[in-house]
Task: inverse folding
């Protein structure tokens, strides 16, 4: 199973980044601990677990499609002119973030893509 990339969330309490991998999602009872304050985060909640897995799959799909996305572009009309923006540039600017509500707390989870080899 490809395990490129990892997730990052900012700790609700101390704002330090908490990093975990896609592999961690394989274990529903696994807890990821914040290195700053020790707060534990779990993926046991069914909705959260499902959404994170879908998010990972989406991000992976984008990575896998990079080859064809490199020759695709989005046309944007600026005044009289049409400007073509390659998908590749759009994607490199895209910050893959998923905003979730867990109970009363809002959590922003970022998908960190490992550096490309090109
Ligand atoms: Zn913390």
Result:
């Amino acid at each position: 199973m490809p395990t490129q990339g990892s997730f990052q969330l900012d700790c609700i309490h101390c704002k330090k980044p908490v990093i975990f991998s896609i592999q961690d999602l394989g274990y529903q009872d696994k807890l990821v601990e914040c290195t700053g304050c020790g707060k534990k985060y779990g993926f046991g909640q069914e909705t959260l677990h499902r959404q994170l897995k879908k998010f990972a799959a989406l991000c992976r799909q984008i990575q896998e499609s990079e080859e064809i996305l490199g020759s695709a572009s989005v046309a944007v009309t600026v005044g009289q002119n049409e400007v073509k923006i390659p998908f590749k540039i759009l994607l490199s600017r895209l910050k893959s973030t998923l905003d979730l509500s867990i109970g009363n707390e809002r959590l922003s989870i970022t998908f960190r893509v490992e550096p490309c080899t090109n």
